């Protein structure tokens, strides 16, 4: 039986309430000021891989869209991350955060130190969007429903607990507080408009679950490699290398 529009939206929001990565212990540790400087750096390095992959994910999506109106609506997502003549973009803002925590932004941008599990998770998301139905691809993006809360908590926690945190270094999160609601308003409406059968609702819900798993698994990888017990896999960033960091400005 097809759920009503309101009931199905509530079902999607419940997925976030139960599975979004704001519940992960790494985020409690980060926002509570319990992360060491190197744990913060490891998070910045690995999260960058996700950030830099988002425009590629969106470009893959747009390459499959035949409806010009949908392409026009989706285009701003790429510009928000890659930047324009008037907007430096989220990727550049994330590299500013990298510099603030004492990392060489060129090293971070190279993605050389990213954990293998991070790459597997993020690449799986890009592949999912490239290969699944448009409905599933858009539904997977609906983790943005829950992002403003985590960005607000992150800004508050980082400002309270870490010396590197200021308006300049946290500009990525402040900008997402303005950008994400626009994206999610469109995406949610589009999904609700296109889930007129039980099988479509189930597919959209499963796509959102998949995306929460992608985000959660990245934090599991960070915890296992850099928190306890720390086991950095070959090729990933080594906190004790001393060669990859420079003095934070």
Summed over residues and divided by their number, the pLDDT gives a mean of 94
The CATH first-level class comes to Mainly Alpha
**Main structural class:** mainly alpha
- CATH architectural designation: Up-down Bundle
Task: Specify the CATH homologous superfamily.
Answer: Heme oxygenase-like
Number of DSSP helical runs: 11
Q: What percentage of amino acids are in beta strands?
A: under 5%
CATH topology: Heme Oxygenase, Chain A
Give the uncertain stretches in residue-range form: none
Helix amount, in percent? Answer: 55-70%
The biggest beta sheet is recorded as:
none
Q: Can you write the helix and strand succession as a string?
A: HHHHHHHHHHH
* Rg for CA atoms: 18 Å
Tell me how many strands there are: 0
Overall shape: globular
Task: Count up the domains.
Answer: 1
Question: What attributes does this structure have?
Answer:
globular, 11 helices, mainly alpha, Heme Oxygenase, Chain A, 68% helix, 249 residues, single chain
Task: Map the helices and strands.
Blueprint: H1 5-19, H2 25-31, H3 37-62, H4 68-82, H5 90-100, H6 105-110, H7 116-131, H8 134-140, H9 147-161, H10 171-193, H11 198-226
Helix pairs in contact: 1-11, 3-4, 3-5, 3-7, 3-11, 5-10, 7-11, 8-11, 9-10
Compact description:
This protein is mostly helical. Helices cover 68% and strands 0% of the residues.
């Amino acid at each position: 039986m097809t759920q009503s529009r309101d009931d199905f939206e509530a079902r999607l929001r419940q997925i976030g309430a139960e599975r979004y990565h704001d519940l992960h212990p790494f985020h409690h540790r980060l926002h509570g000021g319990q992360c060491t400087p190197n744990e913060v750096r490891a998070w910045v390095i690995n999260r960058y891989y996700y950030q830099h992959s988002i425009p590629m994910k969106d470009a893959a999506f747009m390459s499959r869209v035949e409806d010009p109106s949908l392409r026009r609506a989706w285009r701003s997502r790429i510009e928000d991350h890659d930047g324009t003549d008037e907007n430096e973009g989220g990727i550049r803002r994330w590299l500013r955060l990298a510099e603030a925590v004492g990392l060489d932004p060129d090293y971070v941008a190279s993605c050389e130190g990213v954990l293998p599990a991070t790459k597997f998770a993020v690449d799986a998301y890009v592949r999912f969007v490239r290969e699944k139905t448009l409905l599933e691809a858009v539904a997977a993006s609906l983790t943005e429903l829950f992002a403003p809360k985590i960005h607000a908590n992150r800004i508050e926690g980082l400002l309270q607990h870490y010396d590197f945190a200021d308006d300049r270094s946290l500009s990525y999160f402040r900008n997402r507080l303005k950008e994400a609601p626009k994206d999610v308003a469109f995406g949610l409406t589009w999904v609700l408009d296109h889930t007129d059968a039980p099988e479509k609702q189930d597919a959209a819900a499963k796509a959102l679950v998949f995306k929460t798993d992608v985000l959660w698994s990245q934090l599991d990888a960070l915890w296992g490699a850099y928190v306890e017990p720390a086991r950095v896999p070959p090729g990933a960033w080594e906190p004790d290398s001393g060669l990859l960091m420079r003095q934070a400005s």
